[in-house]
Structures are given as C-alpha cells and as structure tokens.
C-alpha cells in the first residue's frame, strides 16, 4: 500500500500542546517570585545593616529572577535553546547592572596611585630628614648606613654606608656627606629635573659647621696634633683655597650645637659632639657658631670668619644652643640659647645676626627638658617644690614663661587628643569633631578641619611643619570596606590639605616632611604623599 507518512514535528520549533513539552509557566513564575522576593529581602537587610555580601546577593538574585520571567514572556516562540540562552543573558546583564556600579562606586584606590615616590618600607632604625622649603628633597637614612634621596618624584640611591653623617643644607639645595674627617658637598638643584641624582661640586678636608648658600665653614685638626685646629670658610663656586682661615680650640674644647626641634635635657651632662646635631636632624645649619673656652659661644660671618654681634653665652654657663631657620617675624636664621640656673630655672634668649631679639624672665625652678624650635623654647618638666608637671613656653610675645596657648585655650572646646606640638603650633582633635591648630605661644586659632565624627578615634603626627591625621571612615554603604581610615596630609602653616586618601590596609608609620608632604608606610612600601 503506497502513500506518504505524516511529517514528524520538530520539537525545537513546533508549538507545544497544553500539558506537553515546553516551559512550565506556573513553575517559572513561582521561581521568579521567590528569587525576586529573596533579592528584595537581601537588599533591605544589607542596606539596613551595611552588609556588603547581602547587597551583592540582592543584585545576583534579582538577575536570576528576571530569567524565568523572560521565559514566560517568550512562551513557545523560537527554539527552546535560544529562549534559554536569551533568558540567561538577561539574568547576567541585570545582575551585572545591579552590582558592578555599586562596587565601582565604593572602590578605594590604593594610595600608591597618588604617591609621587615609593620606596621599600621603613624599618626599625631608619630615619627621615627634610627641610620646610618648597619642592625640597627628602632624605631617608637606613639603619645599615645606606640612604635614599626622594626629589621631584625620583628616588636616588646614595652610597653612604660608611659616612659619619649625611645631611641636607638648610635650604634643601645641597647634600653634605662627612666621612673620615672629609666633607663632600653635592648639588641637588638639577636632580629633580634631570633625574641624574646629586652632582658633587666640592670636597674639602674638615668637619662642617655650617653651609650658608655657597659658603661652607669647616673645622680641621692636624692628624699629628689634635689640638692644632683651624676654622676655614670655602666659597663652593670657587673651590680651593679657602677664603679665610683662623685658629680654633683643640679637640678637648670643641663643642657642637644642640639639635633644633628635638627635646633634650635642659642641663647637658656632657658637651655635644660637633656632628651630634647634624646626625639627629639630618640638616646642616646655615649659621656658623664657634665655642671659645675663654669667651663662650660666638656667631661668625660665613664670608669672613669675623665674629658677629655679641657673645651668645658665656663659657661656664650651662646652656643649650641651637640654630632655627627664619621665622615669620625675622628675615634671617635665629640662634636661641637656653641657660639653666643652679636651681633649674631657665632663661631663654633669641639672637638674630648676633644681636638680642628677645630674652625671657627666669622660669620657675625645677627639672626641665627643652625643645628649641621656630625661634621659641618649649620646656617640659616638673616645677620645684610643687610636684606639678607640665609645659611652659618662652617666645617673642612676652618675657614671662607661660603655658602653651598662654591661657587662651581655657575657653576652647575640650581636646580629646593632641597630634603634636612644636614651637609654632599645636594640633589637637576636640570633642566637637574638629582638628584645630593653635599658636603655641598665644593660643590663636590658626586653622580648623572637620573629622569624621566627634567620638572618632584620631591619631597622627606633627613634624616638619606638616600634620598627618588618620581617623576612621564612617560607613554609609554596604560595599564600603570595613576598618578603612581617612588619611590627610595638612600643611601646618595654612591648614591646606595636600593629600586626602582612604586607606584600607594597616598604616604602619607616618612621617611628616617638608612642604606639606608625608612618608606613609602601608604594607611593604613607603609612599611619598602630598602636593
């Protein structure tokens, strides 16, 4: 019997009969409802309790719930595989649209992206030195004696493992290396532009006392006779021979100055070495001072070697002597002496070009440590017969020693922490959620910045005219990282924020450096931030 057999329907293209193959509409709708309901719950709970995992789950569940809805809407049209592929693509696209923008909006850029330089992390025994000049270099001396110079966004390795001392000039334009009684001076003015590193411009015998622009003053003793010593002044633009030379006391009478900005006992147990201050501060002063066992401390003219002005302190007076850079009220470096009476009372005197700028009355008797900074003196200790410990300040404002702020802070909002204090200002966080800088001498409010919250724990530092403050980031979105800190670098003179970053990794150390910058150690790297 002949004939044609009926055509077999294609299951991929033929409409499905009721109850036959095809998507189960009821099941698909039920699955979609469940997934979308879970997405809503996850979004609500995640937003309420700031749980990032639930916020991500909400976007994924919402995308997954959209797939069954599309299958229902497509019905039996088209191939089954194509319908499923389209539904899956929609689910992925919707999940991505609901999660990726939120993730990107809360992404925290690593601080390294904003750093102008990066070096291996600072370790124990490493020191950081800088000067408060615009675009000044930063000198890092490692515990093993090697050094790195950060300048103009470039890191230069300095081979100084055997150097007795390594320092910057007071204006930041020169690098001074002292090795075995010989001084090498290198120019830094071209290293920030060319990237070629320091360029040696002079090497002379002797230990440096000061470098004023192109005038270098050194002290040299004969190898065969340590008591046969001279002071010499060199013009670095000319080289040898020295412009002037004069005899100097021998090694036994040699004394060095005290480090600026560093707290030391008011009454020295022993005279500092000629290079002690340079080693501590990493800065060679611009004013040459000479101790004469017959006359005392004398300031010299770097160009001629002649004494300038009057004697700064007598030979038998127990005094601390230091050189500070120019202050807002002077156009020249300030030499400050702090002398102790037998009962521990302190008298501070500031000199400019060898002449007295101001002198204080004697402080209360007691046991004091002093910090000479910004042309002022900050003393910390205990007043005799009272047992009262605290701080007192001597400055150009008045002859009497006063507490920091001179009582003007009694009406200020209560402080919860003090980031730091120097001769010019103190930086405090208060109960109103503010970071405030006050003049150390008279309490004038210099600048104010907001913190994340009044009760937020705050820490940081004040160094080299730069404040570095860390306070916790207040979480307002589920996907914001937990434990993040806001790190700000602030020019302590003006209150200008020169760097503002969110840090999620633990910050191991911070160091303020000149020109409103900071070295911040995060993980295995130390970053230069600011400006």
Q: Nutshell version of this structure?
A:
By secondary structure, this protein is an alpha+beta fold. It is 16% helix and 40% strand. The protein is elongated.
Strand order of the largest sheet: 9-8-7-6-15
Report helical residue fraction: 10-25%
Largest sheet: 5 strands, mixed
Low-confidence stretches: 1-8, 10-23
Radius of gyration: 35 Å
Instruction: Count all strands and give the number.
Output: 37
What is the rounded distance between the termini? 98 Å
The secondary-structure class comes to alpha+beta
Spatial shape: elongated
Count of individual helical segments? 5
Mean pLDDT: 88
Strand proportion, as a percent range, falls in 35-45%
Task: Summarize the helices and strands and which ones pair or pack.
Layout lengths: L24 H25 L2 H23 L5 H26 L11 E4 L6 E4 L7 E4 L5 E5 L2 E5 L6 E5 L4 E6 L2 E6 L3 H4 L4 E7 L1 E6 L2 E7 L7 E7 L8 E5 L15 E2 L10 H6 L1 E2 L4 E4 L3 E5 L6 E7 L5 E6 L9 E7 L5 E7 L2 E5 L6 E8 L2 E8 L5 E7 L2 E5 L12 E7 L3 E6 L3 E6 L5 E6 L8 E5 L2 E7 L12 E7 L5 E7 L3 E7 L3 E6 L2 E5 L2
Helix pairs in contact: 1-2, 2-3
Keywords:
single chain, 531 residues, alpha+beta, five-stranded mixed beta sheet, five-stranded antiparallel beta sheet, 40% strand, elongated
Explain this structure to me?
The chain is an alpha+beta fold and 531 residues long. It has five helices and 37 strands. The strands form nine sheets. Strands 9-8-7-6-15 form a five-stranded mixed β-sheet. Strand 35 (507-513) and strand 36 form a beta hairpin. Helix 1 runs antiparallel to helix 2 (52-74) and helix 2 (52-74) runs antiparallel to helix 3. The radius of gyration is 35 Å and the shape is elongated. The N and C termini lie far apart (98 Å). The model is unreliable at 1-8 and 10-23 (pLDDT under 50).
């Amino acid at each position: 019997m002949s004939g044609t057999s009926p055509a077999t329907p294609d299951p991929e293209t033929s409409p499905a009969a009721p109850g036959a193959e095809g998507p189960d509409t009821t099941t698909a709708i039920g699955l979609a409802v469940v997934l979308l309901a879970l997405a809503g719950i996850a979004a609500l709970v995640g937003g309420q309790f700031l749980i990032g995992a639930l916020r991500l789950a909400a976007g994924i569940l919402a995308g997954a719930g959209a797939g069954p809805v599309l299958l229902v809407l497509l019905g039996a049209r088209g191939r089954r595989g194509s319908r499923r592929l389209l539904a899956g693509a929609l689910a992925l696209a919707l999940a991505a649209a609901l999660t990726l923008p939120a993730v990107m909006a809360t992404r925290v850029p690593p601080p390294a992206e904003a750093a102008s330089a990066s070096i291996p992390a600072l370790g124990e025994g490493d020191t950081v030195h800088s000067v408060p000049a615009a675009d000044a270099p930063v000198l890092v001396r490692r515990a093993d004696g090697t050094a790195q110079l950060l300048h103009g966004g470039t890191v230069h390795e300095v081979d100084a493992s055997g150097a007795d001392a390594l320092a910057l000039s007071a204006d930041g334009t020169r690098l001074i290396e002292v090795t075995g009684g010989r001084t090498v001076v290198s120019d830094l003015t071209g290293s920030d532009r060319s990237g070629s590193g320091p360029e040696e411009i002079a090497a002379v015998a002797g230990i440096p006392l000061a470098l004023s622009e192109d005038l270098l003053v050194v002290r040299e003793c004969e190898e065969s006779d340590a008591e046969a010593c001279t002071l010499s002044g060199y013009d670095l633009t000319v080289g040898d021979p020295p412009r002037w030379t004069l005899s100097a006391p021998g090694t036994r009478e040699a004394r060095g100055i005290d480090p600026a900005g560093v707290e030391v006992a008011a009454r020295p147990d022993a005279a500092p070495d000629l290079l002690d201050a340079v080693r501590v501060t990493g800065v060679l002063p611009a004013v040459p001072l000479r101790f004469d066992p017959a006359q005392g401390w004398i300031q010299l003219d770097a160009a001629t070697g002649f004494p300038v002005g009057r004697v700064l302190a007598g030979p038998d007076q127990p005094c601390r002597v230091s050189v500070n850079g120019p202050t807002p009220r002077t156009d020249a470096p300030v030499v400050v002496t702090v002398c102790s009476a037998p009962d521990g009372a302190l008298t501070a005197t500031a000199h400019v070009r060898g002449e007295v700028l101001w002198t204080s009355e004697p402080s209360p008797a007691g046991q004091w440590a002093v910090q000479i900074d910004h042309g002022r003196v900050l003393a910390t200790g205990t007043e005799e017969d009272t047992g009262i410990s605290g701080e007192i300040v001597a400055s150009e404002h008045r002859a009497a020693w006063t507490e920091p702020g001179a009582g003007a802070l009694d009406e200020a909002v209560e402080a919860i922490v003090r980031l730091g204090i120097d001769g010019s200002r103190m930086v405090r966080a208060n109960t109103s959620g503010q970071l405030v800088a006050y003049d150390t001498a008279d309490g004038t409010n210099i600048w104010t910045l907001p913190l994340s919250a009044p009760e937020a724990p705050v820490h940081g530092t004040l160094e080299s005219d730069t404040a570095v403050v860390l306070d916790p980031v207040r979480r307002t979105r589920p996907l914001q990282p937990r434990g993040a800190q806001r790190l700000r670098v602030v020019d302590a003179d003006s209150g200008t924020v020169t760097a503002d970053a969110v840090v999620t990794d633990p910050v191991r150390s911070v160091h303020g450096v000149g020109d409103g910058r900071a070295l911040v150690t995060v993980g295995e790297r130390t970053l230069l931030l600011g400006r």
